[in-house]
Amino acid sequence: MKRSVLSLVTLSMIMATSALAGSASTSNTNNITATVAPKCTIGAFAIAFGSYDPFAAAPLDQSGTVSINCTKGTSGTVSFDLGANASGAVRRMKDTGAGTNFLTYEVYTDAGHTTVWNAVNTVVLGPSVSKNTALTATAYGRVAAGQDAQAGAAGLNYQDTLVATVTF
User: What is this structure's pTM?
Assistant: First the structure.
C-alpha cells in the first residue's frame, strides 16, 4: 500500500509542474534587414541613318533612343565611347565590304547638334521613380554632308559600334 501512495504523489507533482510551465513566456525583438544598392542597366540602341547621298548639300540626320532602368531614387549618367572605327576624336563608320572606306558621323546630346555626346559630355537621367520605369534620352546622329564616300556596284553599307556606359 505504501508503494501505490508514493506513485500517486509523484504523478501529481509532474502534472502540477507541467501546468505551471505552460503559463510562463518570454519575448525577444529580432531585427530583419536587407540592403538595396544603387543599380542601373542600359539597353541597346541604334541610329539607322539610311541612304547617304554624297551629292546632297544637307547633312543626314537621324536619332535613336537611349534607355536605362535604375533602382528607385537612383540617377544614371550615360556616356559613349568614340566607336570601334574612330580616328583620333573623329567617329567613323567603316564599310562592311573591303573595310577600307569610311563615313564620318557624330552623335549629339541635343537636336541642334551642338554638344557631342562622349565620355566628357554626358547625359544624366533620373532619379528613377521605379525600376520598371525606363529613363530615356534621345541621341541625335549626323553624317556630315559632302563626304567622298565609296559606293559598291550594289551599294556599300557602313557601320560602327559605340559602347554606351551608365554610371550610377
Answer: 0.81
Kindly give, in sequence order, each residue whose CB lies less than 8 Å from that of residue 143, ignoring residues fewer than 6 positions away.
Answer: 49, 52, 59, 60, 93, 103, 104, 105
C-alpha pair distances (Å), 83 with each of 11, 24, 96: 88, 73, 15
Long-range pairs of 87-93 with CB within 8 A, sequence gap ≥ 24: 91/160, 91/162, 92/160, 93/143, 93/158, 93/159, 93/160
pLDDT tens across the length of the chain (168 residues): 444 333 334 444 444 454 555 679 999 999 999 999 999 999 999 999 999 999 999 999 999 999 999 999 999 999 999 999 999 999 999 999 878 999 999 999 999 999 999 999 999 999 999 999 999 999 999 999 999 998 876 788 999 999 999 999
Burial class (CB in 10 A: 0-12, 13-18, 19+), 80: buried
Q: List the domain boundaries for the chain.
A: 59-146+159-167
